[in-house]
What we know:
Layout: H1 2-22, E1 32-39, E2 50-55, E3 60-65, E4 71-77, E5 81-87, E6 94-99, E7 106-107, E8 110-111, E9 136-141, H2 142-145, H3 157-164, E10 168-170, E11 176-178, E12 185-189, E13 192-194, E14 211-219, E15 231-237, E16 247-255, E17 259-269, E18 273-284, E19 300-314, E20 317-331, H4 336-341, E21 346-363, E22 366-382, E23 393-413, E24 417-438, H5 443-447, E25 464-485, E26 488-500, E27 504-518, E28 523-534, H6 541-544, H7 552-555, E29 568-581, E30 585-604, E31 611-633, E32 636-655, E33 667-669, E34 674-684, E35 691-700, H8 711-715, H9 719-724, E36 727-729, E37 732-733, E38 748-750, E39 753-754, E40 769-770, E41 773-782, E42 792-800, E43 808-813, E44 817-820, E45 825-833
Parallel strand pairs: 1-7, 1-8, 12-15
Antiparallel strand pairs: 1-4, 2-3, 2-5, 5-6, 9-14, 10-11, 12-13, 14-15, 16-17, 16-45, 17-18, 18-19, 19-20, 20-21, 21-22, 22-23, 23-24, 24-25, 25-26, 26-27, 27-28, 28-29, 29-30, 30-31, 31-32, 32-33, 32-34, 34-35, 35-41, 36-37, 36-38, 39-40, 41-42, 42-45, 43-44
Amino acid sequence: MKRISAFVFALVSAGFVLVLSTAPALAQGAPGTITGTVTDPSGAVVGGAKVEIQNKVAGFDRTATTDAAGAFRFVSVPQNDYHMDVSVVGFQPFSQDVSVRTTVAVNVPVILSVAASATSVDVHSDVDLVESVPTAHVDVDASQMEKLPMSSSGGGLNSVIAHSAPGIIEDSDGLIHPQGDHAQTQYVFDNQPVTDQQSKQFSTSMPENAIASIEVITGAPPAEYGDKTSLVINAITKSGLGVDKTFGSETVSYGSFGTISDGTTFGTGGAKWGEFISANAVRSGRYLDPPEFSALHDVGNNQTLFNRFDFQPDQNDSLHFNLFFARSWFQTPNSYTQQTAGQDQRQLILSYNIAPGWVHILNAHSTITVNPYLRRDEVHYDPSRNPFADSPATVGEGRQLMNAGIKSDYSWVNHHNNFKAGTQLQQTFLNESFFLGITQPGFVASSGSPGLAPYDLTAGGHLFTFSGHTDIKEYAVYAQDNLTFGGLNIQAGLRGDVYRGLTGGSSLEPRLGLSYLLKPTNTVFRLSYSKFFETPYNENLLISSETGAGGLAGNIFGAFGTAPLKPGTRNQYNAGLQQGIGKHLVVDAGYFWKYTHNAFDFDNLFNTPIAFPIEWRKSKIDGAAARITMTDIHGFTAYSVLGHTRARFFGPENGGLIFNSPLDTGVFRIDHDQGLEVTSNVRYQPKKNGPWAGFTWRYDSGEVAGAVATLADVYALTGDEQASIQFHCGSTYATISSPITSCAGGNASANLVRIPPAGTENDDTNPPRIAPRNLFDAAVGDDNIFHTERPRYKAQFTVTNLTDKVALYNFLSTFSGTHFVSPRAYTAEFGIVW
């Protein structure tokens, strides 16, 4: 292991020195550029020609006009395949397919034919619908994002991803389970990697109206992506660079639960510079998903400000500077019992992010990018003023998480190769403070943790307190190459990671992927193997690593393990195919299998948003995912994403704060496991920027609900807990004040959970589950109410949970608590676009 660590560190150092020695400054990141010159048959330049690039599957559509020198340029173009059309009066239309796979600019020379001397030139083909790449992914443009129904206020991009990508299990408070893992998600904003949590419980995420497009990688990510890679979201922010007109928008909305929001964007620029600003604020009376169907003590708000400045001093250098500031404040939702007692727990999150970048073009075939960054989250969790109003414990914390790092890449392309090598250095600074005192009489005895007795405030005890600090250092270096030979694409890479925190670890991670395009049938076949190095979650890592037998005053919390959390490794296999059907339909389906040694998860503290990282000895996860997309047919567009996941985890568990019996042996299905999830969306918009209508159907077969394995478990619950799952004996339903403790005749059942019949429960093959649910959303709108050019006025009316379905995300989960889906909610929105 020491030899591997030394080898990887040497590679990192060498790669870092190489990049810095060749790069003059900073780098812009992952987006590509399409340039070209339009000429006539004699070679004379053609100014005023309209150039349009499109990807119908992603909904991407951009237009430019050639200048007096006949030149056109598209910047910040997501890496994808595009169809390009060029038109101008007096010439035959020109079409060509263009592939963007690197930061190296793609130059497309266009020679137009005079209209009188040509009949037809159209090279457009059905291959536009499929991509011959080994990496399974979904591309979503801003035009698609803004029309999706969002039921979680302030949820950010997680809600977009849950509605758009296959194999994603949607959880409470905007959390998502990507293909069987919990929160193993990495965001990449303009080439800046962010592997810490981006849900509203942990950190206010980037707003949707600051994003131009996203690529959601659901399988076989290349070697440049490390750490949390079950899902990689490559996001490109909006920019003012290259625009010829000032643009922007102002959107206000009001809806159920007193939800009000305001979003403003503004962009301006020119050929050499650009400025884009996004400012947003939202307030809701149902900010988090509560433990009761009714929202009690659930007010929250957040504010975000994003600024991107671009400067291009010459054709070889492009600078951008990203600034992001965010604040969120919210109450912790109460149960009926907590509300009666007057519990008033709440949380404040302050965040900022500074990320400059530079792209330097070395020559026509190679570029250098360098992206330094500084990101900080500060969290304050406050108890009630009267500690005995809190139940079962009064709790508070303050923590800071700061990342300082730099990511550098070198890209080189030729006819067959698309090579990329780079390095990433990061240091994370953690500061944590935490306190807890038991306020519920009898809780210590029922918890099975007698070590809590000194902290039982009802028996004269005192507060438990914790404070800690550490620095975590991470180094990575990678090299990868995409080799293309006709329809065959080979993606080979190697990554090395070193982790130095409370524990240490290192790993070499080979990646190999193959794809083959069978042109006669328009079919792409994919196959890949990937190894990953995963590090523990940073949120509350210090206290979580101190619990367990022998830790924190002799395991007062009842956790099983005692050692600090260690990095893990994952071996992953993916197989799939993409099938184009005609000119408007594409089916993308795949299978994944993942084996992880040291698999990570979170342990929630009661129903609070405070969570502690844990790790399991291993996990075995497999499943299938598919997306069916229909591009525009006379105004109709539609897609459907499907997923099936088996998530089997093996004890013992290490870390976390657990107040019940430790889950220390055997195999079980964790709450990321779900037999089937389906999200389908259809939209009709006959004219661009005209009236439209959309409809969404979401089906979930139900996550695992391990707390109610038998009827005996349900009989032991409080009346409030039984009422939450609509438990009944015949026609008699449990109420808050009248729990059901027995039921003659075998007529006991629950409407919102599925309890296995007596003698059939098995933690692996037949666990209890949340009951299946169907949720429907509908929206209508008009993108140009008064049929004006500039400005345009738009309006939208959305109804989520159209049938007012009462359903749960989870119930008494050790990992996420109890949370209800949102009741039926209405939102009216009005906006101005210029």
